[in-house]
Specification:
The chain has helices spanning 2-5, 56-77, 79-85, 107-132, 142-171, 174-204, 209-234, 241-265, and strands spanning 9-14, 17-22. It is mainly alpha-helical. The protein is globular, with a radius of gyration of 34 Å.
């Protein structure tokens, strides 16, 4: 009887927790584990892991779908104005007058296609960095990369406008300037519209083929644009072949080389 009392345990139950107290000092006694409710536990840390590698895809998709919807609306309701914008002729387009019914693209439509070009081109360059130049953007957030891209695009086209306007002012070739601006603008608009569906394919098709196809098409259109600039320049007797080459270097090659240099340095971004 006395031996049996040596192993008597007093058990106290509180809620979901069972506490066992040993009344007899016995070196051979087994201490039972204490069941603890989850909400009674302390120092429980939950560290969610968020995969942000593709966090930009949904936002880009929504933006592209909005742009594509507006382009489709313009194509359906204003096909004549759209055809005027996408004309690759170098002749000056018709202009609205007080008593004219000429259907030419207005400020809103022209402004939209400028915005469409900047957004689609910026997104395409961003995807190029994500897929092909990942080492150059290590340590930068998606927002920072997009900001640098749009800043570079706006600066690049502002620089081109200054060069074109300055050359036209110096050599008194305003008509040639208008032709050059017209053909360059229309090619940029075509590029912007072309990139919208292509970027959607790049995002959701597991292949890099569309990236290279887009690069080839863009390179072809830019080569065509420079060829038209050469033709416009040769139409004037005051410009020689050397003048045209120097003009293209200042307008196209120099800023592109500067951008390539910045990308190559990586930290230059």
């Amino acid at each position: 009887m006395n031996d049996s009392l040596l192993y008597h345990f007093n058990i106290l139950k509180v809620g979901d927790t069972t506490i066992v107290s040993n009344t007899v000092a016995d070196s051979n006694a087994i201490i039972q584990p204490l069941p603890i409710n989850f909400f009674h536990a302390t120092n429980v840390q939950i560290n969610p892991v968020l995969n942000s590698d593709n966090s930009y895809i949904l936002i880009i998709t929504c933006v592209l779908l909005v742009l594509l919807g507006i382009i489709s609306t313009i194509r359906y309701f204003l096909p004549d104005r759209l055809s005027m914008i996408f004309s690759l002729k170098t002749e000056k387009q018709l202009q609205r007058t007080e008593n004219s019914n000429a259907k030419v693209p207005g400020t809103l439509i022209t402004g939209f296609f400028w915005i469409n070009f900047l957004i689609s081109t910026g997104i395409f360059i961003f995807i190029l960095f994500q897929r092909l130049f990942e080492n150059q953007i290590i340590g930068l957030s998606d927002f920072e990369v997009m900001s640098y891209i749009f800043f570079a695009l706006i600066g690049f086209f502002a620089y081109r406008f200054v060069v074109i306007f300055g050359a036209a002012t110096i050599f008194q070739t305003h008509n040639m300037m208008k032709q050059q601006i017209l053909i360059s603008r229309n090619i940029l608009f075509i590029t912007g519209v072309f990139l919208v569906p292509v970027i959607l394919l790049i995002l959701y098709v597991a292949s890099s083929l569309f990236i290279y196809v887009a690069l080839v098409v863009i390179a072809f259109m830019q080569a065509y644009r420079m060829w038209i600039i050469v033709i416009i320049g040769k139409s004037s007797a005051i410009f020689s072949g050397l003048h045209i080459i120097l003009y293209l270097c200042a307008l196209e090659i120099v800023p592109v080389l500067v951008l390539i240099r910045l990308i190559g340095n990586g930290s230059g971004l």
